[in-house]
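Sequence of DUF1153 domain-containing protein (Aerophototrophica crusticola).
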Amino acid sequence: MAADTAGAHVLEYTAEAQHRGPARPTLLTLEDLPPPDTRRWVTRRKAEVVEGVRQGLITREEALARYQLSEEEFQSWERLIDRHGVSALRVTRLQDYRRG
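Predicted 3D structure, token representation.
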């Protein structure tokens, strides 16, 4: 779940937290980001990349290059998080959220 605390975006990524609502927020570190060779983009990894950019751990350009993402794909992740929360990043739910 995304939250804004004194201007810093924070996320809680555990599956348990996603089911019961916001938990104690955590700040990301570079070690929390997915490895550059990531090929399987689960919800948590997408959220970590977006949040890493928002927290200033890496720039948008660095994220696009590091993970071989298009600007459009990254923007869609941001939009889904902002409009519907992290759970909207699940591939099986994308059509539902894109309609709404």
